[in-house]
Amino acid sequence: MKQQLKGEGLLFLAALIWGVSFVFQKTGMSYVGPMTFGLMRFSIGTLATLPFVFIYDSYCKSKGLDVMSFTDRTMLKAGILTGLANFGLSSLQQIGLVYTTAGKAGFISAMYVACVPIIMIFLRRKVRRLTWLCIAFALVGLYLLCMTGSAGEFLHMQLGDGLVLLSCVFSAIEILLIDHYADKVNPMKLSFMQFIISAVLSGVCAFAFETVELQAIIDCRIPILYTGLLEIGAAYTLQIFGQKTAPPVMATIIMSLESVFAVLAGSIFLHEVMSGREITGCVIMFIALLLVQITDTPKTTDSAASTEGLQRRQHD
User: Fold this and answer.
1) SS3 (DSSP) at 113
2) Which of 97, 146, 245, 293 could form a disulfide with 7 if both were Cys (CB 3.0 to 4.6 A apart)?
3) DSSP code at position 151
4) Which 3 state secondary structure label does DSSP give 316?
């Protein structure tokens, strides 16, 4: 029981870090462009993750387990594919934050939970009926949160909200890729490769489409350091260790609090205010997406649950 509570505490801290990170991602856009921000935070995140790669290798050796090399063919394929998906989701989310609030972005990002079953249909994998009912309610909540105008303008969505929603598709693709490779590769090295690929691609786009200025990066040091060290480096590691002892259903509930923390942080630090309609949409989405995860979690194996943290974000 003590170990379980410790694991739940680690997951709660990870969810808090991820939720607050939307504030720092939003603030960072006042100093540098989205790609420049991505270059810096993923570079720092990559360096922060590197020590854990060696620690995990040492752990595997102590247990007599095989240590997979970065050059392993399966490792390379998994790293490249998940890295591309990670770059897509993080870039779209970061660009979207230029045009929307941190709180709304936090909730919309949670829609990756609904995107996964949709993509699973194309992969000919079975989806439970209750899951579809939950997704339908989540879409109602999304409509109340994001759609503006009268009923005749049903498809009118702000640019930022639309970009963050599109990032959920890449997030869902990344989740399914990780689900496929979870038992085939080293999880810490997979994470490291995702981050370094995102850093490289963000760098290419930054120097191609943005003006990269050293002074602007220095001025943006707090958002960059928070997201690089805490969001990417620390929170991911906390989730890995937290899910080793926390029950899958409880882990799902705790990590879903990320979206709530995003709204609270946006309100406290950025003075963002939601209308009654938007708050109603958030409540409906939170309940629906939580039920989606809980109804699917019992069918998740312990192995998959322990690597579920590789889905993120990112928030990335």
Assistant:
1) helix
2) 245
3) G
4) coil
